[in-house]
Amino acid sequence: MNILETHNLSKFFDGLKALDGVSIEVPRQNIVLVIGPNGSGKSTLINVITGFHQADEGKVIFEGEDITNKPPHEIYRHGIVRTFQTPQPLKKLTVLENLLVAVPHPGESILRSLGRGWVSYEEEYVEKAYEILEFLGIDHLWHQESYKLSGGQLKLVEIGRALMGEAKLIVMDEPIAGVAPALSHSILDKLTKLKEMGVTFLIVEHRLDIILKYVDYIYVMANGKIIAEGREEEILKNPEVIEVYLGAAHGEAECGV
Ligand SMILES: Nc1ncnc2c1ncn2[C@@H]1O[C@H](COP(=O)(O)OP(=O)(O)OP(=O)(O)O)[C@@H](O)[C@H]1O
Question: How much is the ipTM here?
């Protein structure tokens, strides 16, 4: 069963068709990868899915419900969490605080704090945050200000924040960009474990040499369209995929296929 589907999504920027009739399916408990050369529309696709850009045409269906063009906070409440580079103000917070501020429905916690249950409520979240940090292998860093962390450790904090947000689908833009290979593999191992525990992933990533063996299905974009889809073996021998990457490789060798 698909947790997410897009149907003929299109998005224009001043006459430029950044998305041109994009239809994808993301089955539950899968890691689905979107690849393509620079400017092919990958970020626009995940921005439209997560409500950060409005679609001009088409639909986004999550768990059978039409969520097209809903605002990001509403989409977040459905269980779709987009990871970002950690913004500057959050970098001053500790790792633990970063997870605690990601708890959804802050309004509810205010309501609960008016009643008797607030102490156990707070404790419950601190405990949950510790469990997540332990799972991610960064519990020893709980009191560290986030600006002191390495790029890879920050990626793990981003994942921790998504898990605090009760994510069913985690949408990640370049989760291993700039991360050393050993830590990249360790991050991707964690994603695989989370997948086995029920989480689904939609990922945009350029580091194909590292990520391909972890993913279940791949969509390839070029000029706002899906030009190929399938498993690793099919994608790597698809002439159209080779063509767009070879074309891109004349400018810069980025995909490492
Ligand atoms: N906010 C925007 N305003 C105008 N044009 C935009 C905007 N965002 C993206 N575009 C254009 O839409 C097209 C697709 O861009 P997008 O960022 O989605 O590609 P991408 O595949 O994610 O590229 P990269 O791999 O470099 O991140 C590009 O031509 C880009 O210049």
Answer: 0.97
